[in-house]
Amino acid sequence: MIGFLGHPQGGPDGGSIRAYLLHRVKPHLPPWLGWGATGLAGALGNWRWGESAAAGVGLTLASVGLTGATWLMGKSTSKQRRLHSAVTVAAGSAWLTAACLAGPTTGPIDDLYLMGGPVVALSWNVRMVLRHNPEGAAGAEGGSADGGLLEKIGLARAQIGATTVEPNRVTARIGLEPGEQTHDDATKALGRLASALDLPASAVRYTPDADSSRRGEYVIVPEDMLSEVVEWEGPSNLGGSIAEPLVIGRYDDGAPLLVWLPGDPEMGRNSTHILIAGGTGSGKGDTALNVLTEILSRRDVIVWFSDPKAFQDFAPLRAGLDWGVEGGTQTEIMVAAVEAVIPARTRWLGAHGYRQWVPAAAEVQNDPEHTCRSDGRACGCPGMPFLVTWFEEAANTLRNLGDDTFTGIAQEARSAGISLVVSLQRPSYDQMSTSTRASLPSVIALGCDPRDEGFSLPETVIDAGAHPGAWGNRRPGYCYVVSPGIDEDRYPSPGRTRRFTIRAVPVMERLAAWAQRNGAHADPVTAGAVSGVAGRAYTGRTTDDGAPQPAALRAVEEEDDMNHGGLPVDPEDAGIDPEEELPGAEEGDDAPIFGQDTGHKPSPAEARQLFAQALEEFEGAGQMVVGPKDFMDWCDRNNLSRPWVSERLKEAAMAGRLEATNTTGRWRIVPALTAA
Question: What is the DSSP string of 316-339?
Answer without folding.
Answer: GGGGG-SEEE-STHHHHHHHHHHH
